[in-house]
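Below is a filled-in request sheet from our internal design queue. Each sheet records the structural input a requester submitted and the sequence that came back. We keep these sheets so that new team members can see what a complete request looks like end to end.

REQUESTER: design group, bay 2
PRIORITY: normal
MODE: inverse folding
CHAIN LENGTH: 808
BACKBONE (tokenized):
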């Protein structure tokens, strides 16, 4: 079909160039020639009356899509449908299969059918005016309700019309692509450049790789329906049938960070390597249907990365710090973990007290030689769960995760070198990169004709892919609840998604016509991830950069890129930022509430609560102050770097508070202060006590972990009132946030309902997504309730305190 498409394109271009004796090509926008052709098109669709709005407004045919918009042009559903069809046929007619669709012979005559057909601007506008890719959502991943659309060019895609100029000029595009890629290859890896690169490496990068037609597909004379337009754009030409069985081709266009053929490593992973030494936890995963080339694409990457990492490790600056490279390789199969380098030993996943995921029993190997890395990878690959599918004889049935971690070893631990496992555990992780070869994305959808085992695999794969997207979405939205627990895969990847993280998604696609639906699903999933990555990252990156800048400043005093305790620093920030409000959050909140009255006796529960970073955004700055204080207390004996980093964490969180809680009206604090003062007085009066001016320290002060000064501040009524005021603000901010979250959740629920009511929708997708949505809803509510209860308790406590004060 590629050749056929090119031919028809050339023919159409010729027609376009010569059409109408002067043609649209030469006609000025809005010229008589253009209007006449436009009118003929509209007439052909029985929409001649719509020609006048265009003509009278003096706009040209390129604004045809505007007729579809509400309140302008076509009004009835039938008219809209006709207009839509007309646009579609104009847009794709020249690319149709054996029986090109001709709108209506009676009116178009011999020439009009192709008039302006390939005007770059014209087609670009069609795409841009009609679709919002951001409206697409989770269900597209596995089951798609194909809606006839003229184009999927994102309205946010820059220079959409440019695509068509190179569209069928693969040689030029290819040369351009090679040139682009070569530039990146030649970049040297020196220190200065590393820093620049680190700043330039996007937090989420989405690239596509199209594999060539394979022997089977060539033997079946399958068409290659995917054209790569330059190194970022690609088009999928979907063969379709109209209801009257006329064949036509629908063209879908996408734009990604890169569309690759070769040089995958140089574009995706290589730029991340220097950042691994700067505390980055990176994830690179391949996504796509079975047989689309995920394993083929992923397999060389770890080895190349290891090569570069080992090279870096030989640099004196890292050698002097005893940095070493460690490798592990495991798979997730049917929701269970297996060590691929240890006779497929079953592994357990546990979370430690700081919500760090540990894979108990996973073997890690120190590697300093690339040849050894190669052997480990081969050994692991041989142990993977594979099976045969229609599309791939050696199909991966599991998610395989290969991790390369750079760790810093302390000299003290040298004595334990003989014990491999201990050494790996005792060393601090500086940064790591995880390579994930995901199981085929469509397996979950093909449940009907598979056996029970394959169906179970499919359900698990589905769950993990949805969970993966949910996590990316939640992270991107700065959501309080990141649903890491949605699947084993996301649980395992938890630390790769928080803090200084980088994610590369390689979407692998098959080029053959019979894979079209899966290819579109893959590209839509990728597009969704890409669009997610655009919204909030610059903001978050700024925050992260400021933290990393602080860390850099501190570490620069010792002139080392990463100083001892890098992991700790990272972890602390992660914990403040990772705000999982799942089951244990509720438990913790409840236990906090239950024990709040007795915190004198259990100061640690409060401080660990604060330190664990379980607080959501919106927590009062009073709490922040306490948090900062507690953090400093906990790490009172830490190096100054740690303390600095800790306070930076608090600043980080504080910024978030301001974001969810808009600035309060000036003076409101004073007003409220009066309110509370009155309220405490009233409390005192109610107890029939006259002396309300006493400011003696209270014995009932609940903060025993604080300093004397703080105790004084907290125990004085003014200090208490200020603290309560701040908590009140935080409560209101949290309430506001909860409403925002609920609104977003309700929107998602409505969308889910609309989707499940479509004919042919997949109930299993609906169930999985609804379950996610409901747990988010519940977590959000419970969080607010706990905060409210805490605040009520605080008020009560304050009242008692004041009564005690006045009795003295
Ligand atoms: N870019 C490519 N160039 C040449 N051959 C390729 C390319 N990509 C994949 N192949 C070939 O296609 C076949 C399927 O590839 P691969 O096993 O990587 O698919 P997969 O997506 O991992 O499938 P599954 O999900 O079933 O494991 C293999 O024989 C592989 O060699």
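RETURNED SEQUENCE:
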């Amino acid at each position: 079909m590629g050749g056929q498409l090119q031919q028809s394109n050339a023919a159409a271009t010729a027609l376009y160039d010569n059409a109408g004796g002067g043609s649209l090509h030469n006609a000025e926008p809005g010229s008589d020639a253009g209007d006449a052709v436009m009118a003929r098109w509209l007439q052909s669709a029985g929409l001649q009356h719509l020609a006048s709005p265009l003509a009278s407004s003096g706009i040209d045919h390129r604004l045809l899509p505007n007729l579809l918009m509400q309140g302008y042009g076509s009004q009835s559903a039938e008219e809209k449908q006709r207009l839509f069809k007309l646009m579609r046929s104009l847009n794709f007619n020249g690319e149709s299969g054996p029986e090109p669709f001709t709108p209506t012979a009676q009116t178009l005559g011999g020439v009009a059918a192709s008039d302006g057909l390939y005007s770059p601007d014209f087609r670009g506008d069609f795409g841009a005016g009609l679709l919002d890719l951001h409206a697409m959502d989770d269900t597209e991943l596995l089951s798609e309700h194909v809606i006839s659309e003229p184009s999927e060019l994102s309205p946010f895609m820059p220079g959409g019309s440019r695509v068509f100029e190179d569209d069928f000029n693969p040689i030029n595009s290819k040369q351009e692509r090679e040139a682009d890629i070569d530039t990146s290859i030649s970049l040297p890896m020196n220190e200065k450049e590393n820093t620049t690169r680190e700043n330039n490496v996007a937090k989420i990068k989405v690239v596509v790789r199209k594999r060539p037609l394979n022997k089977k597909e060539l033997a079946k004379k399958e068409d290659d329906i995917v054209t790569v337009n330059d190194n970022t754009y690609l088009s999928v030409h979907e063969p379709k049938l109209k209801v009257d069985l006329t064949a036509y081709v629908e063209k879908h266009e996408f734009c990604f960070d890169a569309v690759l053929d070769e040089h995958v490593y140089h574009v995706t992973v290589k730029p991340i390597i220097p950042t691994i030494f700067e505390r980055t936890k990176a994830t690179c995963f391949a996504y796509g249907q079975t047989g689309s080339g995920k394993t083929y694409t992923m397999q060389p990457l770890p080895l190349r990365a290891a090569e570069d990492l080992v090279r870096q490790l030989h640099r004196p600056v890292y050698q002097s710090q005893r940095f070493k490279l460690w490798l592990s390789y495991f798979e997730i199969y049917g929701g269970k973990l297996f060590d691929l380098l240890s006779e497929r030993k079953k592994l357990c996943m546990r979370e430690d007290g700081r919500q760090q995921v540990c894979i108990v029993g996973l073997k890690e190997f120190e590697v300093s030689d690339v040849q050894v890395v190669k052997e480990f990878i081969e050994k692991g690959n041989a142990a993977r769960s594979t099976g045969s599918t229609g599309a791939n004889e050696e199909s991966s049935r599991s998610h395989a995760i290969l991790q390369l971690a750079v760790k810093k070893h302390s000299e003290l631990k040298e004595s334990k070198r003989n014990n491999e496992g201990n050494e790996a555990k005792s060393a601090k992780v500086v940064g790591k990169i995880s390579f994930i070869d995901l199981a085929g994305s469509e397996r979950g959808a093909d449940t009907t004709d598979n056996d029970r085992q394959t169906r179970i695999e499919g359900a698990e794969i589905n769950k993990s892919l949805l969970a993966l997207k949910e996590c990316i979405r939640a992270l991107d939205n700065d959501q309080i609840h990141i649903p890491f627990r949605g699947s084993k895969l996301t649980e395992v990847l938890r630390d790769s998604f928080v803090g200084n993280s980088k994610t590369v998604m390689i979407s692998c696609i098959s080029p053959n016509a019979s894979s079209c639906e899966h290819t579109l699903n893959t590209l839509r999933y990728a597009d969704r991830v890409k669009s997610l990555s655009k919204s909030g990252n610059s903001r978050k990156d700024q925050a992260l950069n400021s933290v990393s800048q602080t860390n850099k400043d501190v570490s620069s005093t010792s002139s080392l890129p990463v100083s001892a305790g890098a992991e700790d620093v990272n972890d602390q920030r992660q914990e403040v930022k990772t705000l999982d409000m799942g089951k244990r959050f509720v438990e913790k909140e409840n236990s906090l509430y239950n024990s709040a009255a007795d915190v004198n006796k259990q100061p640690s529960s409060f401080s660990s609560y604060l330190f664990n970073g379980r607080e959501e955004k919106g927590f009062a700055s009073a709490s922040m102050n306490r948090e900062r204080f507690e953090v400093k207390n906990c790490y009172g004996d830490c190096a100054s770097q740690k303390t600095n980093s800790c306070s930076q964490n608090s600043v980080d969180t504080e910024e978030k508070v301001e974001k969810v809680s808009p600035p309060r009206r000036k003076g409101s604090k004073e007003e409220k202060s009066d309110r509370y003062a009155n309220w405490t007085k009233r409390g005192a009066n109610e107890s029939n006590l006259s002396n309300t001016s006493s400011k003696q320290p209270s014995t009932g002060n609940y903060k025993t972990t604080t300093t004397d000064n703080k105790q004084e501040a907290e125990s004085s009524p003014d200090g208490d009132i200020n603290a309560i005021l701040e908590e009140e603000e935080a409560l209101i901010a949290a309430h506001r946030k909860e409403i925002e979250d609920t609104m977003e959740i309700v929107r998602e629920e409505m969308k889910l309902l609309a989707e499940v009511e479509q004919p042919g929708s997949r109930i299993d997708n609906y169930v999985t997504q609804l379950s996610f949505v409901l747990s988010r809803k519940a977590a959000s509510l419970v969080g607010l309730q706990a905060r409210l209860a805490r605040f009520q308790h605080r008020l009560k406590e304050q009242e008692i305190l004041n009564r005690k004060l006045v009795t003295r």
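SHEET NOTES:
- The chain has three domains: 2-130, 165-535, 546-807.
- The mean pLDDT is 61.
FILED BY: M.R.
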